[in-house]
C-alpha cells in the first residue's frame, strides 16, 4: 500500500513551489508524482503541419519527488505525515500521524 494515491490533496514541502496545494493526477513507479498545477515547466514546441501540431511555448506539469509532498490534513489546515493501521477486521488503512484520524473511508 502506498502512502500517496491518485486523488489525494497534497502540499509541497520544499522547492520553488513550497506551500502550494494540488491534487495528485498520477503516481509514477520511480517514486515521483504528477500534481496538478505544481512543478510547471515551459516547453518550446515546434510546429508540425503534417501532424496538425501548433507551435509555441506550452506549460507542462513535470513529476515531483514524493518525498517533497505531504498529504493535506483539512482538520489541521496543513500537510501531515501518513502512517498505517490494521483494523480489527484485518483491513489496512492510512492514518494521519499527528491525530491518528483515518484517511481512507
Keywords summarizing the entry:
single chain; 105 residues; mainly beta; SH3 type barrels; six-stranded antiparallel sheet; two-stranded antiparallel ribbon; elongated
Secondary structure topology:
Layout: E1 9-12, E2 21-27, E3 32-35, E4 40-45, E5 56-61, E6 64-65, E7 69-73, E8 78-80, E9 82-86, E10 92-96
Would you write up a description of this structure?
With 105 residues, the protein is mostly beta strands. The protein has a domain at 9-74: SH3 type barrels (Roll), CATH 2.30.30. The protein has no helices and ten strands. It has a six-stranded antiparallel sheet, with no helix packed on it. The two termini are 15 Å apart.
Could you provide a short overview of the structure?
The protein has no helices and ten strands. Strand 1 and strand 2 (21-27) form a beta hairpin.
Second CATH tier, the architecture of the domain at 9-74: Roll
**What structural class do the secondary elements suggest?**
mainly beta
Radius of gyration: 18 Å
Q: Which regions have little confidence, pLDDT < 50, spanning 5+ residues?
A: none
Broad shape: elongated
Q: Summarize the biggest pleated sheet.
A: 6 strands, antiparallel
Number of helices: 0
**What string, H for helix and E for strand, traces the elements in order?**
EEEEEEEEEE
Strand sequence of the main sheet, in spatial order?
6-3-2-1-7-8
Topology, number of strands: 10
Amino acid at each position: 500500500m502506498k502512502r500517496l494515491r491518485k486523488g489525494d490533496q497534497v502540499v509541497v514541502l520544499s522547492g520553488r513551489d513550497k506551500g502550494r496545494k494540488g491534487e495528485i493526477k498520477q503516481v509514477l513507479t520511480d517514486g515521483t508524482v504528477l500534481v496538478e498545477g505544481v512543478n510547471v515547466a515551459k516547453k518550446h514546441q515546434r510546429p508540425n503541419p503534417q501532424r496538425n501540431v501548433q507551435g509555441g511555448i506550452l506549460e507542462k506539469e513535470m513529476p515531483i519527488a514524493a518525498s517533497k509532498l505531504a498529504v493535506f490534513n483539512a482538520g489541521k489546515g496543513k500537510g501531515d505525515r501518513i502512517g498505517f493501521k490494521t483494523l480489527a477486521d484485518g483491513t489496512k488503512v492510512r492514518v494521519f500521524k499527528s491525530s491518528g484520524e483515518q484517511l481512507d473511508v
